[in-house]
Each structure stands twice: as C-alpha cells, then as structure tokens.
Write a structure and sequence with these properties.
The chain has about 120 residues and is mostly beta strands. Helix content is about 0%, strand content about 50%. The strands form two sheets. Strands 2, 4, 5, 6, 9, 10 and 11 form a seven-stranded mixed beta sheet that branches. The protein has a four-stranded antiparallel beta sheet with strand order 1-3-8-7, with no helix packed on it.
Length: about 120
C-alpha cells in the first residue's frame, strides 16, 4: 500500500505560479511512477504529467501543459512535485497525485494509488 497526500493548491491569477507537492508513505516510493492528474467540474480526469520510478528517467506531459509545468521527485524524501507556471484559467481543477509500479501511463485506470486531491483555481 502507498498513501499519498497532496498539498500546495490555492488560488492564483492568470500568469502566476504554484507548486504542488505529493508526500508518499507506505511502500518504497522509489519503486513507483508518480503522476499528476486533474479533474475540472463536469469533465473527466485527465493526465497532466508523470515521472518514472527511477527519478532521473523519463517524464511525460500533456500537450496542454508542456513548457509550463515541470514534474520532479525526491525519492530520499518520498515526495513528488509539480511546478506550474504561466497558469491559465483553463488549468483550474482538482489536482490528484497518483502512483503505479515503475513506468508512467497516461490512463487514470492504470494507477493503483491516489491522493485526496488539492484545488487549483486560476482567475483571469
């Protein structure tokens, strides 16, 4: 079992920045890929960014956030982070941290563990 707790959400104006953090506990976090998904009201949960289990390995981003968001992890601290810059109103959503063994997938159903989510609101 892996427990995930997100933090760092909030409200920001368009063009601003936020940093989300995901704290993991339970099984060794280094064995899991970490990803961020988001869900806006009335929409399906969508993949935002992911990083593979070995940290220095591959990352993946949704086209909508490429060049604006950066995912990273610190296996020694059992954390994953999402640095969000140049935020847009369409980035408004609940952001979820998720984990699955080893490699990143972009489908939400591929993830075994989820946090409770943190709200990000971007005003124009």
């Amino acid at each position: 079992q892996v427990q995930l707790v997100e933090s760092g959400g909030g409200s920001v104006q368009a063009g601003g920045s936020l940093r989300l953090s995901c704290a993991a506990s339970g099984r060794p976090f280094r064995d899991y890929a970490a990803a961020w998904f988001r869900q806006a009201p009335g929409k399906e949960r969508e993949f935002v960014a992911g990083i593979s289990w070995n940290g220095g390995g591959s990352t993946a981003y949704a086209d909508s956030v490429k060049g604006r968001f950066t995912i990273s992890r610190d296996n020694a601290k059992n954390t994953a982070s999402l640095q969000m810059s140049s935020l847009k109103p369409e980035d408004t959503a609940v952001y979820y941290c998720a984990a699955r063994p080893y490699n990143v997938k972009t489908v939400a159903g591929s993830y075994d563990y989820w946090g409770q989510g943190t709200q990000v609101t971007v005003s124009s």
